[in-house]
Amino acid sequence: MLTIDQATYDAIVAHAKRDHPDEACGIVAGPEGSDRPVRFIEMVNAAGSPTFYEFDSTDLFQLYKDMDERDEEPVVVYHSHTATEAYPSRTDIGLASEPNAHYVLVSTREHGNNEGPVEFRSYSIVDGVVTEEDVTITPTEQEEST
Amino acid sequence: MAIEVRIPTILRTYTDGAKAVEATGASLTALIDDLEGNHPGIKDRLVETKDGSVDLRRFVNVYINDEDVRFIGGLQAELADGDQVVVLPAVAGGAR
Hints:
The complex is a heterodimer. Chain A is built from three helices and nine strands. By secondary structure, chain A is an alpha/beta fold. Chain A has a single domain (2-138), classed as Cytidine Deaminase, domain 2 (3-Layer(aba) Sandwich), CATH 3.40.140.10. In chain A, the strands form two sheets. A six-stranded mixed sheet of chain A has the order 3-2-5-6-7-8. In chain A, strands 1-9 form a two-stranded parallel sheet. Chain A is globular. Chain B is α+β, with helices and mostly antiparallel strands. Chain B has a single domain (3-89), classed as Ubiquitin-like (UB roll) (Roll). In chain B, the strands form two sheets. Chain B has a five-stranded mixed sheet with strand order 2-1-7-5-6, covered by helices on one side. The longest helix of chain B is centred in the middle third of the chain and has 11 residues, at 28-38. Chain B starts with a strand and ends with a strand. The A-B interface holds A 23, 25, 27, 43, 47, 49-55, 57-58, 60-61, 64-65, 73, 77, 79, 81-84, 88-89, 91-92, 95-100 and B 8-10, 59, 61, 63, 66, 68, 70, 86, 88-96. Strand 4 (53-54) of chain A pairs antiparallel with strand 8 (92-93) of chain B, so a sheet runs across the interface.
């Protein structure tokens, strides 16, 4: 099961809507082993395509270096499908390389750049096997103001 | 002294779970052959033979001292003791 807070959920959806009709992509990092997605990181889709996404190789290196320094791992790897359902394609399955991550797919096919609900679904993808999992959205924790 | 190679999660099955291993080689090709000697099977996950020539797999990124090897000679990229090599699978996919 994926547990994600409202603000992070909203940020993923907003990114997907903004980049529509191209696919949007990014990750949410969290402390290693915690399974808590806490640090939202939008990535540039180097493919700039409505049917494909790829992190730029230099951005990818910097991202993993930063996570390593913070003892983080990619808890969520997200991308959008802009004309099809929020289900991993054969390409998604073949290229999935984070067996511990939650692969989040958002479909913007219904409302595109506009307001309106989106499909937001999460999967584990391990050795070519896709398993859908429940998504629980929790209220965003407010920073205590002093 | 040797070259440190950082291994991504997906390939740690070949390194008994180790996040980094040591290897030697004066070029990336030689380094990968040395890795293969100690971690059989890993080479095939990094390179592929296409039209008779061996190249890095399209969705595998290798960096030498923070630089993508595709910009510095690919498999022919030179290595020296003390260099750091990082292997990262591409994060990619899409509806296509």
